[in-house]
Design brief:
The complex is a heterodimer. Chain A has a 7-stranded mixed sheet with strand order 7-6-8-9-10-13-14. A 5-stranded parallel sheet of chain A has the order 2-1-3-4-5. Chain A has a two-stranded antiparallel ribbon with strand order 11-12. By secondary structure, chain A is of the alpha/beta class. Chain A folds into 2 domains: 234 residues, 3-Layer(aba) Sandwich (Rossmann fold), CATH 3.40.50; 153 residues, Rossmann fold. Chain A has 13 helices and 14 strands. Chain B is mainly alpha-helical. Chain B is built from 11 helices and 4 strands. In chain B, α1 packs antiparallel against α8, α6 crosses α8 and α9 crosses α10. The chains are: A alpha/beta, B mainly alpha.
C-alpha cells in the first residue's frame, strides 16, 4: 500500500467499489485534523522539518486520491522547541498537548520527536483520549505498564510508536559493540534529557551484564560549550569506546572535541545523533567514524522505498531522513484507521480513531509489518546500526553520509 | 596518562577556558566601573561576535575545517578576522549605548538593567530568525599542530587563545593607565560629577567603555569559534553567565580582577569536571563564588564602582 503501484491499486479499488455502489453515501465532507508536535526551533529543527514532511506527503496523497471517502486530512504543526531551551522544551510540549486536546477537530496526533516532550504530553493526551503516533521517541518508560499511572492515567494506550524503544536500542548496541567491535571498556555519557539518560542507562545496564567494563558515567550540560575536561578524563582512563545518549545540541560539541582529544576511541550513540543537523554542525573530519543506531529497520536501499524517495524528493526537493519514513508510516496508520471506520460506517471520532489505530495490522509498510501491542509499542523491533563514512559523491550534510552496517543483535 | 600529566592537561584546558571568560568579563567590568550598570546585552554581543567572525572568515574563502593555511596567510586571515569582528561588535556596543541606554541614563532604579536584558533577547532572536537554529560549523584555518609537554597536549589554537588574551589585556591596561581617554575613564569611574567638572566628556568616556568592552567580547567570540569550531545562537548565555561570575569573583569594576576571575573560573571548571564530575561544574563554580563573597564581599581584588552622591 505504500509504493506508488499499490497506492494506485488502492485508489483503483476504491473507484471500482464506488462504481459497484458498495461505498456508503457519506455525509458532508469531514475534516480530520491531525496535530504534529516537533521541535521546529532549536538544534534539531532541520530533522523536525524532514520528519514532518513524511507525514505531509502521506496526507497530501490521501487527500489527492480521495483515499478515504468523505474525509480530508489536515496536518496542524505545533512547535515544542523554544529559543531559551535551544532545543525541544517539555513545558512547551505540554502546552501543545493541551492545545491539541482542546481543539475538538483534532482526532489523532503525530509526534513528538523527543522523549522528553513525550513524557510531558502523554498524561495530557491520555486524559483527552487523543491517540498519538510517535515516529522517533524511544524512551521505554512512556509505554511501560509499570508507569501507566503516570503516563496513561486515562487507561487505554494512546502513545503508539512506529519505532522500537531504547529498551532495545541501548542494549542491542551494547551487544553490537561487544560482539562486532570487540569493545571491552567503555565510558558512558548522556545529555541530561529524558531520552539521553534513559538510553544511556539501558546501554550501561546491558554493557555491565555482558562483562564490558564501564569506566564511568558523566552528564554533559547541553548548554555548556566545553567538554574538554570530561574528555581529558576519559583519555586518562584509556577507554576503548564511548557511548553517548543524547541529541545534537550537546552532540555537535562532543563530536568536535572528542575528535581533538580522543581521536582513536570508538564512538557510538543512539538515534538522536543520526541527523543532518549533526553533520552540518560538526562537519567532517570530526564526525567521521561515529556509530549510531535507529530504532527501525533500514529499508532505504529496499526497492519498495524507492518510490517513496522519488515522491518525497519531487515534493520537497531534499532527501528524507530515516524518521521521515516512520512518520510517513505513522500518518499511513492514521489514514488506514480512518478508512477502517468509514468502511464500517462508524463515525470518525477521537475515541474511535484510538481504537482503530490499536487494531491496525499492516503487513507491507516502508518499515516492515506494523501492529501495536496493548501498550502501544511496535510488535516488530529491529535496531539498525550506521557508521558515518565520508561519501564525497553526496552532499556532506545529507543522510547518505551514514553508511548502513547491519542489525544490532538483540539481547 | 599519569596523574601529574593529567593535572597539567586539565590546567591547560582550564587556562584556555579562563582566557575566554576573562575577555568577556572585561566588558562587564568596564561598563560597571563607569555606569554601575550590569549590561546583560553583553552576553549576546559576544554571541553576535561569533557570527561576525564566522561570516568574516567565510568571506575570506574559508569553509569548515577544509581550508588549512600556514605562515603569513594564516596570520593575515586571523588578523583580518579579529579586526573586522572587534570593530563590528564595538560599533554594535556603542549603538546599544547611544540609542537604547543613553535615554535611560538618568532614570533611577533598574530600568536600564532590564533594558539590557531586552536588548540581549533582541540580538538573540535576530540571529535565530536570520541564521536559523542549527549549530553552525565555524571555519578554522589553523593546522592541527600539537605540542607534547610532560605527557600533556597543547594545541596551536590554545596557544593562540593565550597570546590573543594576553595581548588584548596588556593593550587594555596600557590604554586605561596611560592614555588621556583612559585617564578620563578612571576619573569618571571614581567620581563622575567631579570628572565632569574637570572637563571630562563623560558621554565620550561611556561610549569608549562600551566600544572597548564590546570589541573584547567580539575578540572573545572569534576565539570561541576557533577553539570549538562551532557556534549557535545559544552560546551567549552559559559563557556570559560564567564571565559575569568571573567579573564578580574578581571584584566587579576592577580590570585586573576580571582577568583573575576569568582564569580562576576556567580552572575551577576544568578541575571540577575531573575530580567532582562534569554535571557538578556549575555547582562547584557557584559554591566557590559564594564562599569568596562571604569572606571577601568585594571580590578577590576589590570592587570598583562610581561614587554616586
Amino acid at each position: 500500500m505504500l509504493t506508488r503501484r499499490s497506492a494506485l491499486k488502492a485508489s483503483a479499488g476504491f473507484v471500482a467499489a464506488s462504481a459497484a455502489g458498495t461505498v456508503p453515501a457519506v455525509a458532508a465532507n469531514q475534516v480530520v485534523k491531525v496535530g504534529i508536535d516537533m521541535p521546529y526551533t532549536g538544534a534539531d529543527a532541520t530533522a523536525a522539518v524532514q520528519i514532518t514532511e513524511g507525514a505531509q506527503l502521506a496526507f497530501d496523497e490521501a487527500n489527492k486520491y480521495h483515499e478515504v471517502p468523505g474525509i480530508t486530512f489536515e496536518l496542524l504543526k505545533y512547535d515544542d522547541g523554544t529559543a531559551t531551551a535551544g532545543q525541544y522544551d517539555p513545558a512547551q510540549a505540554a502546552t501543545n498537548a493541551r492545545k491539541m486536546v482542546s481543539d475538538k477537530a483534532v482526532l489523532a496526533a503525530l509526534g513528538p520527536e523527543m522523549s522528553g516532550s513525550g513524557k510531558a504530553m502523554a498524561p495530557i493526551l491520555s486524559m483527552g483520549g487523543l491517540a498519538t503516533i510517535t515516529p522517533s521517541s524511544t524512551n521505554p518508560d512512556i509505554t511501560d505498564p509499570k508507569f501507566a499511572a503516570q503516563f496513561r492515567p486515562g487507561g487505554k494506550a494512546i502513545y503508539f510508536r512506529t519505532v522500537a524503544t531504547d529498551a532495545y536500542q541501548g542494549p542491542n548496541m551494547a551487544n553490537y559493540m561487544a560482539e562486532v567491535l570487540k569493545v571491552k571498556s567503555v565510558y558512558v555519557l548522556d545529555d541530561t534529557g529524558a531520552y539521553g539518560v534513559g538510553l544511556a542507562n539501558a546501554f550501561q545496564q546491558r554493557a555491565e551484564k555482558i562483562g564490558m567494563k564501564v569506566l564511568g558515567r558523566d552528564r554533559l550540560d547541553p548548554k555548556a560549550a566545553d567538554y574538554a575536561a570530561v574528555l581529558t578524563k576519559i583519555k586518562s582512563l584509556d577507554a576503548q569506546a564511548i557511548y553517548f545518549g543524547g541529541v545534537t545540541e550537546a552532540g555537535v560539541k562532543l563530536v568536535k572535541q572528542a575528535y581533538d582529544i580522543i581521536p582513536k576511541v570508538i564512538k557510538a550513540a543512539g538515534d538522536g545523533m543520526e541527523s543532518s543537523d549533526l553533520l552540518a554542525g560538526a562537519g567532517f573530519p570530526a564526525v567521521e567514524g561515529w556509530y549510531v543506531t535507529i530504532a527501525a529497520p533500514h529499508l532505504v536501499g529496499d526497492p519498495r522505498v524507492a518510490s517513496f524517495l522519488k515522491r518525497f524528493n519531487e515534493k520537497f526537493h531534499q532527501q528524507p531522513e530515516d524518521y521521515s519514513l516512520t512518520c510517513y508510516v505513522g500518518a499511513r496508520v492514521i489514514i488506514e484507521a480512518a478508512k477502517d471506520l468509514v468502511a464500517n460506517k462508524k463515525p470518525v471520532t477521537r475515541a474511535a480513531m484510538r481504537d482503530a489505530i490499536q487494531r491496525v495490522n499492516l503487513q507491507n509498510t516502508l518499515i516492515g509489518p506494523v501492529s501495536f501491542d496493548a501498550n502501544g509499542d511496535l510488535n516488530n523491533k529491529i535496531i539498525s546500526v550506521f557508521q558515518v563514512r565520508k561519501n564525497p559523491a553526496a552532499p556532506l550534510n545529507s543522510m547518505d553520509q551514514y553508511a548502513y552496517v547491519g542489525i544490532a543483535p538483540s539481547a | 596518562m599519569t596523574t601529574a600529566s593529567l593535572l597539567l592537561q586539565q590546567l591547560i584546558n582550564g587556562l584556555s577556558l579562563g582566557a575566554m571568560y576573562a575577555l568577556l568579563a572585561l566588558g562587564f567590568t568596564l561598563v560597571y566601573g563607569i555606569l554601575e550598570l550590569i549590561n546583560f546585552a553583553h552576553f549576546n554581543v559576544f554571541m553576535v561576535g561569533t557570527f561576525i567572525a564566522m561570516w568574516t572568515l567565510e568571506g575570506l574563502g574559508l569553509s569548515g575545517q577544509s581550508v588549512i593555511l600556514h605562515g603569513p596567510a594564516l596570520i593575515a586571515v586571523l588578523a583580518a578576522g579579529f579586526a573586522v569582528t572587534m570593530v563590528v561588535t564595538g560599533v554594535l556596543g556603542v549603538g546599544i549605548e547611544r540609542f537604547v541606554l543613553r535615554p535611560l541614563r538618568d532614570v533611577k532604579g533598574p530600568a536600564a538593567m532590564i533594558t539590557t536584558i531586552g536588548v540581549s533577547y533582541v540580538l538573540f532572536n535576530v540571529i535565530l530568525l536570520f541564521v536559523g537554529a542549527g549549530s553552525q560549523n565555524f571555519p578554522n584555518p589553523m593546522p592541527q599542530a600539537r605540542f607534547n609537554i610532560a605527557g600533556a597536549v597543547i594545541e596551536l589554537r590554545e596557544v593562540l587563545i593565550w597570546v590573543v588574551a594576553i595581548v588584548l589585556m596588556l593593550a587594555l591596561t596600557f590604554f586605561v593607565q596611560s592614555t588621556k581617554i583612559g585617564r578620563a575613564m578612571r576619573a569618571t569611574a571614581q567620581d563622575p560629577e567631579a570628572a565632569r567638572m574637570m572637563g571630562v566628556e563623560v558621554d565620550r568616556v561611556i561610549m569608549t567603555a562600551f566600544f572597548l568592552g564590546s570589541a573584547l567580547a567580539g575578540a572573545g567570540g572569534m576565539v570561541f569559534g576557533l577553539y570549538y569550531n562551532y557556534t549557535s545562537f545559544i552560546v551567549g548565555f552559559t559563557a556570559g553567565l560564567r564571565a559575569f561570575t568571573a567579573a564578580v569573583l574578581g571584584g566587579i569594576g576592577n580590570v585586573p580582577g576580571a582577568m583573575l576571575g576569568g582564569i580562576v573560573i576556567g580552572l575551577i571548571e576544568a578541575l571540577g569536571s575531573q575530580f567532582v564530575g562534569a554535571s557538578w561544574a556549575d555547582v562547584v563554580i557557584f559554591s566557590i563564588l559564594v564562599l569568596v563573597l562571604v569572606f571577601r564581599p568585594a571580590g578577590l581584588l576589590g570592587r570598583v564602582a562610581p561614587n554616586k552622591s
